[in-house]
Design a protein that fits this description.
Region (Disordered): 1-53
Distance between the termini: 32 Å
Order of helices and strands: HHH
Biased composition (Low complexity): 7-22
Largest sheet: none
Radius of gyration: 11 Å
């Protein structure tokens, strides 16, 4: 739940971001460190649009 809140706070569209973050979290739940991947994925998604190298 904490991850969801952080994502919503950073994004202007809490519904859209929350949905994507939730899916990623669920998918990475099997991983050894799902929280890190979750945050990384959520941040990367937002950063990618802003940080288009």
């Amino acid at each position: 739940k904490q991850l969801d809140q952080q994502s919503t706070n950073k994004s202007t569209n809490p519904t859209s971001n929350a949905n994507t973050t939730t899916i990623v979290c669920d998918n990475e739940k099997s991983n050894p460190n799902p929280p890190k991947v979750c945050i990384r994925q959520a941040v990367t998604s937002k950063s990618q649009e802003d940080d288009d190298d």
